Amino acid sequence: MASGSTRAGRPNQSPFTRFAQWVSVAAGKPATFVGAAALILVWGLTGPFAGFGDTWQLIINTSTTIITFLMVFVIQNSQNRDTAALHIKIDELIARTEGTRRVLLDLEELDDTALETIRAEYEELARREREGADDEEDAPEPKAPRRRAPRKPAP
User: Fold this and answer.
1) What is residue 105's DSSP assignment?
2) Are the C-beta atoms of 75 and 24 separated by less than 8 Å?
3) 115 in Cβ contact with 142 (< 8 Å)
4) For 71-95, what is each residue's pLDDT tens digit?
5) CA angle at residue 116 from 114 to 118, to 5 degrees?
């Protein structure tokens, strides 16, 4: 059995992860957009009854600020998880495919200069392909990537 899995084969997730996934799915549905638009419409229609006062404006301003603030963290959590899963899947493909450059396995750990160098190599490879050089021997040789300095542990 894979680590991090329960007996039913479902991943063992923290309550926050389950909540973040649920919110991310729910927030992306058209019904959620319609509901939010309806709330704003109702709020706007109540303006004449509230005299378009400061409290009336404060309700929408405060509500939207709080929701936006919290959604940043929920969406970032989901994005981080999705990105990590995608990296793992791509790393598996690179590791299992014959003839790939293993230096590509941890590109996310390279500094910007090294990433730009590798990107330029692939641009050159694409240019050669367009010009009809389909020999893989023409592929640019990888240069030694510069790694980021290791992170210092928090005190």
Assistant:
1) G
2) yes
3) no
4) 999 999 999 999 999 989 988 888 8
5) 70
For residue 93, which of 78, 108, 104 has the smallest C-alpha distance? 104
Side chain identity at residue 4, one-letter code: G
Q: Write out the E strands in 1-155.
A: none
Alpha carbons 136 and 133: distance in angstroms, whole number: 8
Q: How far is 97 from 65, CA to CA, in rounded Å? A: 48
61 pLDDT tier (thresholds 50, 70, 90):
very high
Cβ–Cβ under 8 Å, residues 145 and 117 = yes
CB count, 10 Å around CB of 80? 11
Residue 25, CA distances (Å) to 10, 22, 40, 50, 103 in order: 18, 5, 21, 35, 35
In whole angstroms, what is the distance from residue 152 CA to residue 15 CA?
29
